[in-house]
Here is the input.
Amino acid sequence: MRRALVRMGVALLSLCVIAPMSAAQGVKSKSSGFFLGGGLEGNGIVTNVTGSSSVTENGGGAGLILGYGFNQRWSLYAGLSGAEIHADGGGGYGLAHVDVGARVHFRTGPNIVVPFLQFGLSARAEGQDFTTSSGTHKIEAGGMGVAFGGGLNAHFTPSVAFSGSVVWSVGDFTDYKLDGTSFDGGTVRATSARVHLGLIWFP
Here is the structure.
C-alpha cells in the first residue's frame, strides 16, 4: 500500500512538473515587461552643409537599450550609443545618440523570430579634440531629430534573444560649443545610420 501511495505521489509530482513545461513549450518568445539589451554597432553619418557637397564618414562603437513592454506588441524604449568616427580629412571624432520612442513587436509568443519596428526622437552629439599653437581645444556639435528603423529578435529562450537592427536618425546640428562656450555654427543637415548586433533580455 505504501509503495502504491509513493508511486502515486511521484506520478502526481511528475505531472505538476511536466504539465507547466509542456504548456511553456508553446511560448517561444517574450516581448512584455522590462527589457535590457546591448551590443556592437557600425555607424555611418552623411552631413550636408548648404552650398557644399555632402560628406560620408563611418566608424564603430557600441549601444545599449532599455525599455518596457506594456504587452507583447507595444513597448517604450530608450537607447544610448557611442561610436568613434573616422573623419574624411583624417583623424576622428566621437558621435553619440540618445533615442526615446516606441517599439512594435510582431509574432511574439509561438515564434522564435520576432521582427520589430521602432520610431521616436533622437538627440545627437559630436565631439572632437584638436591642437593649435594656443593649446588643445574641444569643439562640440549637437541637435535633435527623429529616429526610425527595425530589426528582429531571434530567441534562444523565451527571455533571451540575439538582436539585430538598423536605425536611421535624421535632423540638424544647430548647437555648437568651443571649449564649453556656445557660438553660432549655422545649420548642418545630417543623416546617420546604426547597424546593431547584440543580445536582449526580457527578465
Strands lie at 33-49, 55-69, 74-86, 92-105, 113-132, 135-155, 160-173, 175-178, 181-183, 188-201. The chain has one domain: 29-201.
